Amino acid sequence: AAGAQVAAPVTPQQMLASFDGVFIKQKVDLLEAFTGYKQENRYEIYQCNAEGKRAEGFPLWLAQEKSACCERQCCGAARGFTMSFMGANAGGGGFSAPWMTIRRPFKCACLCCC
User: Fold this and answer.
1) How far is it between the farthest Cα atoms of the chain?
2) Whose CA, among 2, 27, 49, 105, lies 20 to 30 Å from 34?
3) Residue 114: its pLDDT value, please?
4) Is the dihedral of CA 19, 65, 44, 77 positive or negative?
5) What phi and psi values does residue 75 have, to the nearest 5 degrees?
6) C-beta neighbour count of 74 within 10 angstroms
7) The pTM is what?
């Protein structure tokens, strides 16, 4: 229609600012659960509802860890990693390119082999 305005796209940061909270669910890896062999972590991020619980529907974002195998197995929480946040495509059909990346360097708090 003539004169109709198109809304500007909403950025993930604007979406976060409009939420009362988010619910973060770690995806369990069966290999890790049964063998103890540490895998890269993955998280699904949902909007919270008015009661502070996970809202129904598909996740808004996915967070995916990238880290070195040796650091995961030997250094635990001290390991370095990169966490990429990707947006969910409408209807839950896959994820977009990362919109935010966090890099945490290796942090050794003691004199050890790590």
Assistant:
1) 70
2) 105
3) 52
4) negative
5) -110, -10
6) 14
7) 0.76
Dihedral angle computed from the Cα positions of residues 83, 84, 89 and 90, in that order, rounded to the nearest 10 degrees:
50
Q: By mean pLDDT, which of 15-19, 33-37, 79-83, 89-93 is the weakest?
A: 89-93
Of 90 and 61, which is predicted with more confidence?
61
Alpha-carbon distances of 9 from 14, 15, 48, 69, 93, rounded to whole Å: 10, 10, 22, 38, 19
pLDDT at 26: 92
**pLDDT tens, residue by residue, 2-55:** 555 655 667 888 888 888 888 999 998 888 889 988 999 999 999 888 788 888
**In this structure, what token pair is assigned to residue 36?**
């103890």
- Closest residue by Cα to residue 20 from 44, 53, 43: 53
Q: Whole-angstrom Cα distance, residue 46 to residue 55? A: 7
Closest among 24, 23, 26 to 52, alpha carbons compared: 23
Cβ contact 59:42 at 8 Å: no
- What distance, in Å, lies between the first and last C-alpha atoms of the chain? 64
Q: 62 and 86 in contact (C-beta within 8 Å)?
A: yes
